[in-house]
C-alpha cells in the first residue's frame, strides 16, 4: 500500500532484507513497529468499506472519514437474508510471551478477503485505555495484521466507552443522592418531591410506572395512593452494606481502589444531624470496561432490549432484602439516553481493506469477554451466504470460548460453525514446564532455541482446549503462529499433537510477518471445515440447572477440577439469588486466565485440584451470575515504567508517536 512517505521511508531503511510483495501489502523482511506499519498504510474512505458490504448511506453515521457507526437498520433490512459462516477465534491459556490471538483474528480476515476472495467481516472488542497507557499497549492486532487507524482504535474511537463511563457514574450519583435524601426526609416529603404538583396535577413519569408495577400497585394517579403505598413507592431503604455499584474511569489508577464518599460539608452536616454515619462510606472505582453497563451493551440485541437490561441492573438491596434496581432509582431512561448511540457497532478496516466491526469490550473474567451480539448479527447478514464472520473471544478458550458459547450464544441465538484455537510453540514451552517470564525482564534463553521436550510436554494445554471445544460440538482448527526462532521440528510436533487430539485441521500461520498471505493456509482450512457443516453446537448446561450444578459442570468439564468448594458467604449469596429468580441465568466464572485451575502458576493441564468459590455476584441486567475464584482486581495499577513514557505527538503532523 502507498502511504506516509516519511514513515514508509523509515520502515524501509530499517529493513534487513529484501522487500516481499503480496496481493495488497508491501512487506519488509524485518517487520517494523506496529505503529510504523499502521501509519505507513493508506486507509480507504470508510464509505468505500461500507460499499463493499452494500450498506446504504443512511445506515452509516460518519465519525470523520475513516470510521463510522453502522445502524441496526441494516440488520432489519437484511433480516430475511441467510447468515454467513460464524467463526470464533480463541486461544490456549495465555502467557506473557503472547500468542497473537487478535493478530490471528485480523490475519484470518485478511486471508479470507484479500487472498481467497470471500466476503468477510472481523468483529473485535474495543480496547480500554487502561492497558493502552499501562503495560500491555494497544489491541489492534500486530505486524501486518492490524486494524487501522491504530490510534483511533486504541483511544477514543467513537466515544462508546466514555458513554459507558458517564452512564455508570450517573447511576452511582443517583444511588448516593437517594440514600442521602431518604436519610433526611420523611416519607411524605420524599413522595411530594418525587411527584410534585404541576398546574394543579401530579403525575408519574414512565420510569416510575415500572416501579409501581414491581410493587404491584395498579393506580396511576399519584393522588390516589394511600400513605402506605406512598411510603412503599418513595422509600427504597437501601442497606449500604449491600451496595455493589462502583464508580468507574477508563484508566489504570491504583489510588482509586479505595475511596471515601460524601465527605463534603453539607453531607457531613446531614450525616451528623440525622445520625446517618452510613452516608460517609468507603467504596472504590473500577475500570470502565468492568462496568456492568459494558456487559449490557455487549449482550443487548436492540435498543429496547438494552433499555430493559439497564433498568434491571441491581445496585444493592433494601434492608428487607429486596433488590434495588436502576428502574427503582428512576435513572434507567437517562442511562439509555446516554447509551443510545453506543448500541450501533463501529466500522473500521484492516490493513488490507477488509471491514472490521469494533464494538464493546467487557472484561473477560467478571464478564464474558466478547464483542457485541449486535455486531455479530449485523455482520452475518452483511456477508450473507458463503461469507465469513470472524469474531474473537477473550483470554484462553477455557474462559473466552466457554462464555462465548454459554453466555453470548444464549443471548444471540447464534451458533458457531468453527472455532480457531491459537497457540505458539514458544508459549507451549511454558506450559511444558519452562521458566516463568516477567514483563520488563529478559526472556529466558530456552524460549529462543529449540527444545522439543518442552514443546511436547506443553502440547497438553492446547489438547485440553481442543477437547473442551468438542464438548460444545464445535469443530476445531488450530492456528500455530510461527515465530522467527521456531524450528520446523517444534512446529511439526504441535501440528501432530493437535491432529491426534481431534482437531479437524492444524495449520502453521505467519500473518504477523506476511499479512493475509501468511494466513492463507489457515483461511483455506477454515473454509474446508465450515463447508463440511459438521458443527453440532450445544450448550454445556441447561437453564433449569441450579447455580451450583452449572458451576460444577464448567469446573469439571472445562477446567478439569475434581470438584467445587463454596465459602459460607457464597452459599448465602447463591440461596438469595435463587430465591429471587436469578438461578436460571447462565454463570460467568471469574478466575485467573493464566491457568486452567485457580492457581495462575499451574501451567499445562493441572490435576487433583478443587475450585474454591469465594463469593458469588449477579449482573442481573447483563444476564449472568458470576462466581469469584480467588482475588479479582477490577482496577488495574500502573507499573514503574508504563507505556505512556513512549507516547507523544508529532507537532508538525499531529500524528501519534510511540503507541504500541
From TrEMBL:
Keywords from the UniProt entry: Amino-acid biosynthesis, ATP-binding, Histidine biosynthesis, Ligase, Methionine biosynthesis, Nucleotide-binding, One-carbon metabolism, Purine biosynthesis
Any one GO BP annotation for this protein: methionine biosynthetic process
CDD domains: FTHFS
Top-rank taxon: Eukaryota
Pathway assigned to this chain's UniProt record: One-carbon metabolism; tetrahydrofolate interconversion
Record has RNA-binding as a keyword: no
Signal peptide: none
EC identifiers of the protein: 6.3.4.3
A single Gene Ontology CC term: cytosol
Record carries keyword Metal-binding: no
Known partners and oligomeric status: Homodimer.
Protein name: formate--tetrahydrofolate ligase
Amino acid at each position: 500500500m502507498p502511504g506516509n512517505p516519511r514513515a514508509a521511508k523509515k520502515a524501509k531503511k530499517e529493513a534487513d532484507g529484501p522487500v516481499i510483495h503480496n496481493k495488497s501489502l508491501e512487506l519488509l523482511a524485518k517487520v517494523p513497529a506496529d505503529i510504523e506499519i499502521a501509519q505507513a498504510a493508506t486507509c480507504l474512505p470508510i464509505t468505500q468499506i461500507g460499499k463493499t458490504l452494500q450498506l446504504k448511506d443512511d445506515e452509516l453515521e460518519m465519525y470523520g472519514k475513516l470510521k463510522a457507526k453502522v445502524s441496526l437498520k441494516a440488520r432489519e433490512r437484511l433480516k430475511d437474508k441467510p447468515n454467513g459462516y460464524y467463526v470464533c477465534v480463541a486461544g490456549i491459556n495465555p502467557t506473557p510471551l503472547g500468542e497473537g490471538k487478535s493478530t490471528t483474528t485480523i490475519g484470518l480476515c485478511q486471508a479470507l478477503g484479500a487472498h481467497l476472495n470471500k466476503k468477510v467481516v472481523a468483529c473485535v472488542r474495543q480496547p480500554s485505555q487502561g492497558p493502552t497507557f499501562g503495560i500491555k499497549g494497544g489491541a489492534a492486532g500486530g505486524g501486518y495484521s492490524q486494524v487501522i487507524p491504530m490510534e483511533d482504535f486504541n483511544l477514543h474511537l467513537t466515544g462508546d466507552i466514555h458513554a459507558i463511563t458517564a452512564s455508570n457514574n450517573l447511576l452511582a450519583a443517583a444511588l448516593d443522592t437517594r440514600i442521602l435524601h431518604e436519610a433526611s426526609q420523611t416519607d411524605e416529603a420524599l413522595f411530594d418531591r418525587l411527584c410534585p404538583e404541576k398546574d394543579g396535577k401530579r403525575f408519574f413519569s414512565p420510569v416510575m410506572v415500572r416501579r409501581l408495577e414491581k410493587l404491584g400497585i395498579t393506580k396511576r394517579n399519584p393522588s390516589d395512593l394511600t400513605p402506605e403505598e406512598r411510603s412503599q413507592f418513595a422509600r427504597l431503604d437501601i442497606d449500604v452494606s449491600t451496595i455493589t455499584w462502583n464508580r468507574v474511569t477508563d484508566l489504570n489508577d491504583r489510588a482509586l481502589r479505595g475511596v471515601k464518599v460524601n465527605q463534603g460539608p453539607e453531607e457531613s452536616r446531614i450525616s451528623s444531624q440525622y445520625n446517618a454515619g452510613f452516608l460517609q462510606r468507603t467504596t472504590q472505582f473500577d475500570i470502565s470496561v468492568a462496568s456492568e453497563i459494558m456487559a449490557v451493551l455487549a449482550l443487548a440485541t436492540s435498543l429496547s432490549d438494552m433499555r430493559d437490561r439497564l433498568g434491571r441492573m441491581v445496585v444493592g438491596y433494601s434492608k428487607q432484602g429486596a433488590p434495588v434496581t436502576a428502574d427503582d432509582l428512576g435513572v434507567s431512561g437517562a442511562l439509555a439516553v446516554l447509551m443510545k448511540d453506543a448500541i450501533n457497532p463501529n466500522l473500521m478496516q484492516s490493513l488490507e481493506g477488509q471491514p472490521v466491526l469494533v464494538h464493546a469490550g467487557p472484561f473477560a473474567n467478571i464478564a464474558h469477554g466478547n464483542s457485541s451480539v449486535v455486531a455479530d448479527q449485523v455482520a452475518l447478514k452483511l456477508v450473507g451466504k458463503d461469507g465469513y464472520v470472524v469474531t474473537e473471544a477473550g483470554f484462553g478458550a477455557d474462559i473466552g470460548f466457554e462464555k462465548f458459547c454459554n453466555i453470548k450464544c444464549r443471548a444471540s441465538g447464534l451458533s458457531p460453525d468453527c472455532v480457531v484455537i491459537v497457540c505458539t510453540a514458544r508459549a507451549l514451552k511454558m506450559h511444558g514446564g519452562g521458566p516463568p517470564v516477567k514483563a520488563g525482564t529478559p526472556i529466558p534463553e530456552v524460549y529462543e532455541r529449540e527444545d522439543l521436550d518442552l514443546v511436547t510436554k506443553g502440547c497438553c494445554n492446547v489438547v485440553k482446549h481442543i477437547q473442551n471445544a468438542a464438548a460444545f460440538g464445535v469443530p476445531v482448527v488450530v492456528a500455530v503462529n510461527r515465530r522467527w526462532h521456531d524450528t520446523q521440528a517444534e512446529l511439526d510436533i504441535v501440528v501432530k499433537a493437535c491432529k491426534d487430539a481431534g482437531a479437524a485441521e492444524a495449520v502453521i500461520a505467519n500473518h504477523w510477518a506476511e499479512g493475509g498471505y501468511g494466513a492463507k493456509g489457515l483461511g483455506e482450512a477454515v473454509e474446508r471445515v465450515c463447508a463440511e457443516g459438521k458443527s453440532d453446537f450445544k450448550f454445556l448446561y441447561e437453564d433449569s440447572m441450579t447455580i451450583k450444578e452449572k458451576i460444577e459442570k464448567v469446573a469439571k468439564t472445562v477446567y478439569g477440577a475434581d470438584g467445587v468448594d463454596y465459602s459460607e458467604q457464597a452459599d448465602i449469596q447463591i440461596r438469595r439469588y435463587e430465591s429471587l429468580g436469578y438461578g436460571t441465568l447462565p454463570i460467568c466464572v471469574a478466575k485467573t486466565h493464566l491457568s486452567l485451575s485457580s492457581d495462575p502458576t499451574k501451567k499445562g493441564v493441572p490435576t487433583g485440584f478443587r475450585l474454591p468459590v469465594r463469593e458469588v455476584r449477579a449482573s442481573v441486567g447483563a444476564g449472568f451470575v458470576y462466581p469469584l475464584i480467588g482475588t479479582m482486581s477490577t482496577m488495574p495499577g500502573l507499573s514503574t515504567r508504563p507505556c505512556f513514557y513512549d507516547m507523544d505527538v508529532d507537532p508538525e503532523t499531529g500524528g501519534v508517536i510511540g503507541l504500541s
